[in-house]
Amino acid sequence: MANMIEAAKLQIDSLVRSAYAAAVEKGELPEGVELTGAIEIPKDAKLGDYACSYAMAAAKAMHMAPRKIADALLANLELEGSYFASAEVAGAGFINFRLADSWYAAVLEAIEADGSNYGSINVGKGEKVMVEFVSANPTGPMHMGNARGGVLGDSLAEVLHRAGYNVWREFYVNDAGNQINKFAQSIDARYQQIILGEDKVEFPEDGYHGDDIKDIAKAFYEANGDKYLNAEQTERYEAMSRFGLDTNIPKMQSDLKKYHIEYDEWFFESSLHESGYVAETVELLGQNGWTYEKDGALWLKTADLLRQKAMNEGKTKEQADKLDLKDDVLRRANGFYTYFAADIAYHRNKFAKRGFDKVINIWGADHHGHVARLQAALDGLGLDGSRRLVVVLMQLVNLLQDGKPVRMSKRTGKTIALADLLDEISVDAARYFFNAKPDTHLDFDLGLAVREDSENPVYYIQYAHARICSLVAALAAEGSAVAAAKDIDVSKLAGDNEHELIKQLSLLPEEIRLSARDYDPSRINRYLVELASRFHRFYNSERIKGAEPEVLAARLKLADSVRSVIAAALGILGVTAPEKM
Predict the structure, then answer these.
(1) Which of 493, 512, 555, 559 is nearest to 532 (CA)?
(2) Which of 4, 83, 111, 421 is the right S-S partner for 506, CB 3.0 to 4.6 Å?
(3) Torsion angle of alpha carbons 24, 30, 33, 35, nearest 10°?
(4) pTM for the structure as a whole
(5) pLDDT tens per residue across span 261-274
(6) 507 phi and psi, to 5 degrees?
(7) Residue 371 burial (CB count, 10 A)
(8) Phi/psi at 373 (nearest 5 deg)?
(9) Whole-angstrom Cα distance, residue 237 to residue 192?
(10) pLDDT 10s digits, 442-460
């Protein structure tokens, strides 16, 4: 599992430190200076493949001009046997390094060795991380926001897995509280309408109006007849909510499976109430001095917790006191616990009971105000929620058809449902397009998603993979199979297009590292588009079929390496890599 960019940087650091030691021994540089600075990839390839700023960083400590320090370091550099063919001093004192064939060969060898795991690294070192995502109310079909959250959560979970974290995927089922009562009330109204007639039973104004509720009520009637017509409301609602949940949850599971999403656990909110865990959590907050009673209700001192959180994050007491903060109800006067109380208990369960080191939630941007409040409540329980709970907020999706918004769903009468979307476009297109940068609004163009040309990035990337598969098969039929990396002459890959393509291949481990660091799997989308672009450029400019044998072998190996990496990176996104198109 090699990161050849990191390997190159580490080697530069080692080479420069050895050069410094040699320069000190010769009396060319003063001793006792700790070398610091940066090793970066220049934006302009003409400046070299890597640039080291150690000389400029050491100027003050050495009391010397950076350029003079750089000249001394360069004079003592030993590049023999390294990943670098040459180095030179540039600008105010940069040392620029140019890669040797050995580095390009090592990239192809790493891809061959790691196969579908290429790009995997171990920055996570097994840290136990939960990614909770979608967690849609089970009262109706999943909508576009759930569709986007599903892809972002699943792709992020896979990125973290490949970055060396021990990842757990979870769906939190809100099967308790107000919305379930409203769900049962809506089914009951439709059930009574079936028996008594629509004009005899008023449907609740704030009920769920979609056709899916009518379908559940009809199925309930077919299973039970008028048995529940005169039953006690509590008994009726309990039976109907259970029937509705037993209908909807398997449908959600099957829709998500079709969307290539499967969870390690579906965690039910009701279990927290039934086990007494919500009550116990609220009691703990009280024992820690963070609750009080008012108007018959139990309140959390959210404002105090947020002020303390703000001060811990560097704000002054005066700044914290100026924040417009409010407390939250945990238990209503009627004895029922609020959704916030259950949410605190659920997250306490994640940290205290199940031992996750970090928890990442994918939420809609409309939950922005809830993030700090939940983190602060967990701080109040001594769980360090401000650091250990990460919430990725995603912006809204605008679905477009022929440049015009698509708003209505045939299933819900409201926003477009995930199942509707997957009737219109492929799962691959949905997963790719929804994996856009979370903090940006997404205009999802249905027309673009089904186009079969280079304007559609999914098609463009998959076509590159299929094109290579066809090339490999055609050449194999002619007796030119893909060679092992050790058996090709990498010096035959000396053109700019070839070097740039191999450099792009080398970037996947770094993109995985940065995606995990920033909780932004959309980096993989952009990586793939650039990789496909560089491949098409290489393929259109460098002859493979018909080239002399050593060149053909090297270029075919490079093309096949691109195929392998495209498949590995598409796998992170849950997108297929077709062999034919």
Answers:
(1) 559
(2) 4
(3) -60
(4) 0.92
(5) 999 999 999 999 99
(6) -75, -20
(7) 17
(8) -65, -40
(9) 12
(10) 888 888 999 999 999 999 9
